Amino acid sequence: MAAEAVALAEKQVAELKVALAQNHNQIRNCQQQARRQALAVRNGGLSVQAVRKVLAVYVVSNWDLSLAVLAAQRLSRLPPCSAAFPTSDFVSALFREHNWEELLMLHDDASPLWAPARKYARQLLLEHDAYLWVKRLNFAHGVAPSASSVFHYYEKKALDAEPCGEPRKRTVNKWAARWRARWGVRRACLRSADTVEPNILRDKVKAFWRSIAYVTAKFSHQELVWINFDETSAVLPHFLVCSEARLPKSVASGFAALPQTKLRLLRAKSSWVTADSMISILADVRKALAPWLPMVKPILVLDTASPHLPKKVMSFAKKQGLQLLFVPSCSTSLLQPLDIAAFGGFKQWVKRKNMVLRQTAVDGQPELLEFLWQLSQAPRDFFGGKKWAHAFEGVGCGRDVTKLHSALKKFMQHPESFPHSAKPSPAEMALIWPKRRKMSYAGACLF
């Protein structure tokens, strides 16, 4: 018995030593993290590599302080509301206090220490030059250049020569999306240089109105319920499509444990909407509308994004008793009710709610679960107060020309009536779809 007691005591002592060592490691890690955070605050939230990048921008831009401040604020890990967030005085002091011998190595191409900083500074200056070029076109000609034109200008400056060959469209779109996000450029805030001719766009609008007239006449024995697909209401669910990497399973499980709302999380490998996710969404919408379907006919207004157009999506919607109505390509700014009545205000609403969360969050970074919960309140707090009937009437769903929104009425040269309720012809259907998209099956699936 004595030997067993001694062995048990030795085992407990060993376990205590292991636990004590783990505690020491945790304390040391916390101390190191606290020192790093204190150093980051003193350095405006910039790491050593970030400091070199800011200084490289300042020197390579020929002492442009505003660009250096922009680089510092982009690279800073502090929230903008922090008192230590980089300013022009901070960047000036950073330059004065830096080691001059080390700074002179910036111009040495053989120095690996400054190579990432030189690359970052060059890219920032090229993107800034493209940004200024777009502004000049906007102000001088009232034209917003296409993404391919901006990418061509950027490559030409980067290579200092005319680029060879045409880049892939996907490459251009990915670059343009990142560039717009970094420089706060709004897409299509002016007419595009390669936009659709006004007469063709008017024909597209008339084709859309023809579809409305035909659907309205076809289901005149039922009450029509117009639904913009991203719209949320007291009855319909709304959906957030997100990648598994951006939305961990633990956060999704935590959200599922909260009181149920209308928000549905669709996690997948990619955050891109696919035909399969569209079918899942349509099934959920059909389930939500089931009690009313014998009396009403739901009409879902969609744009011509590629996940909305596959034959299996249209066929599934038809089998479920859902009538799809497509806004013609290149006309969403005129005919998409969400673009007209919701998106601008919704983005501002999300921004305000996010700022409130930042004020109470640790280090100014709100938890993802908190943000999801706030987003799930949008149907009640934002969309619930919208007069959707007015938005649909404004694009012609009510077939009353006096209720069209002013921009559409002016563009269509103040129409006196809508097209009659004949079935859209193949030529009219072709005006709805994007170029080079073969949609021979659409007529049978829709009408």
From TrEMBL:
This is DDE-1 domain-containing protein. Pfam families: DDE_1. InterPro entries: DDE_SF_endonuclease_dom (IPR004875), RNaseH_sf (IPR036397). Residues 271-355 form the DDE-1 domain. The lineage of its organism: Eukaryota, Sar, Alveolata, Dinophyceae, Suessiales. It comes from the Eukaryota.
